[in-house]
Amino acid sequence: MAQDFVGSNNINLLMPKGQFGTRLMGGDDAASPRYIFTHLSPVARLLFPDVDDALLDYKEEEGQLIEPEFFVPIIPLLLVNGCQGIGTGWSTYIPQHDPLDVVKYIRAKLEDKKRLPSIKPWVKDFDGIISIDADHTSYTTEGTLTPTSKSSLTISELPVGVWTSDYKEYLVKMLKKGEIKSFTENHTTSSVLFDVKLNMATLSRLLKGDIHKTFKLRNSLSTRNMHAFTPDMNIVRYKSPRNIADDFFPIRLALYADRKSVLESNMEYSATLMRNKARFIEAVSTNTIDLLHGKKSKDATNALLEEMEFVKQSDLDVIKSNNTVAKRRVAQHDIANDEISSTDPSKEYEYLLSMPLLSLTTEKIETLKTEAAKMDSKMEEMKNTTAEDLWKSDLDKLESYLISNNK
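Request: output the structure for the sequence above.
Response:
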């Protein structure tokens, strides 16, 4: 997840602080784990917004909450970074694709466009050619070969997935067979450069034919084996990257609907809380509620607050839990409605009575009223915002980052 050399990740979610491997050996030259360090990359929180953390369904192990069942990025990373591997009875190979194409495709679906854009194969920092075969069931990647004289050529890019050290072995075999006269290397950890010498007649003949095939500078990336789990946890073979994005779309959109619901309930909770605090400070300052002379017991004060219809903590908790996520969790754990708030009856107004004396000022009253009004405005704005609007906003931020960082 931290590797960022050509052919590894189009978007690395972790930062490679140390030697995480290079294209020289396809990552096999990575340092020992005790010598490397990592942390989240800047793009990670654009793909996985922190506001979504509270929406995920977390697993429980030995009475403690651990990681969620799954994370949901704002675009399908399965397409962006690709996937290959072998499981019991199954294997999969999903090529890498351009994240900007994926963003455009998702945005087109959000806007309900009839003609959806294509999602093209793309590998970050790859300088060769990627083309789609006529049958649209595979991609061909081609390295870069340039004749530099009548008896020499330069290889400055290799096909996707072909590592520098492996290709050197192939040139050594060609050298032993007499197909080339010699070669030199001038690579870096991120670039490839082979200078190859051969007979003039040989080079002239190869240039008239398929020289890329002779030098094995072309390979095919099939899309016939794109197996992945569906949202229902079934394994299916996807025929195109669009199909993968289509299955991803409703899952992510539902999470945005949950985000909207949670934000609305949190905003209503905050606004109600601030209005009650402001009203309470006003009542204390006008001596409607006498807390300064110690003439009333706590029970009597609570009774007075209830008589004056201040909102109880249990009612605040109900407001905060009035969203799709809380209701789903209540249903999953079979919790009765009266168990949502477990506030001690004697502490229903603790949020008011525990306010510091420094809060009992006219400045604090105005501040709370102003903040409550702002929160009301935000809540009204959120109610007029759709789940699709929230997704588009996140896509805009990600797209801006990808363009500015040449992803």
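Residues 265 and 320 are 5 Å apart (CA to CA).
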